[in-house]
Amino acid sequence: EICKGVNGLDKVVLREVRGSSAEVYLYGGHVTSWRNDHGEELLFLSTKAIFKPPKAIRGGIPICFPQFGSHGNLDQHGFARNRFWSIDTNPPPFPTVSTNKALIDLIFKPSEEDLKTWPHSYEFRLRITLGPGGDLMLTSRIRNIDAKPLSFTFAYHTYLSVSDISEVRVEGLETLDFLDNLKAKERFTEQGDAITFESEVDKIYLATPTKIAVIDHEKKRTFVLRKDGLPDAVVWNPWEKKAKSMADFGDDDYKHMLCVEAAAVEKVITLKPGEEWKGRLELSAVPSSYRSGQ
Ligand code: TA6
């Protein structure tokens, strides 16, 4: 249902029959909460998140569009996360008919102002679905309704909630090439084991598999990210020093979050007039079957 969230901002609450839930603010089309059927919060939301436009909400799943990163004349990560979206009452038919799933369709179109800073006409539809097992699915459909080509980069800037970052492993990115944002985007190759964390990390992994696993050892929980149309994956933890420099981030927040972001960054997406791009992210949280010594 639609209700008032923090600072009176409109939010939609999705509830699934088995008890899982999700919340999405019309501001930014921003998912801020995803709870399993035990009511446990699976996304990280900063203890100091500022729910006040034009600042993006710190945590949940910010939508980075029409660009990931900070280059050119746009703000960092574009402006879709800093704008008010609306509920799409008559979305074009989705290929997969949704059965008993809780879902909401949102739409974002550029304002006159937006067209001045980024002169492209498009329709950005976002469908958020809670599946029967509590899986959270985000499907973005961006249609170029301009007479000229539309080029953009994109990310679901997902903040996962973890009990202790030093006890987290990421599987699925081993041996891949990545651009290291901490070293002027220099290209490196990841080593052969699961990724662990003991300092600031800001890496754009390239040509990643459709499935990435994030294992929270303490909670015996594995997040599985499945993605489609999003070839890259950004892994980010600001660690202690950068966390302290961010006003909307608690000093200790870095210990309880990890960003793993399904993205299209290395290769720009270009749509011809009338063409539509689709980018899907499916998140699930499953108990980790632990073998000792893992
Ligand atoms: O996702 C990694 C990153 O690009 C980092 O470099 C860091 O800037 C992070 O995004 C957060 O960006 P934001 O604009 O949300 O503060």
From TrEMBL:
Coiled coil: none annotated. One of its GO terms (molecular function) is glucose-6-phosphate 1-epimerase activity. Keywords: Isomerase. InterPro entries: Aldose_1/G6P_1-epimerase, G6P_1-epimerase. CDD domains: D-hex-6-P-epi_like. It is an enzyme of class 5 (isomerase). This is glucose-6-phosphate 1-epimerase. The lineage of its organism: Eukaryota, Viridiplantae, Streptophyta, Embryophyta, Tracheophyta.
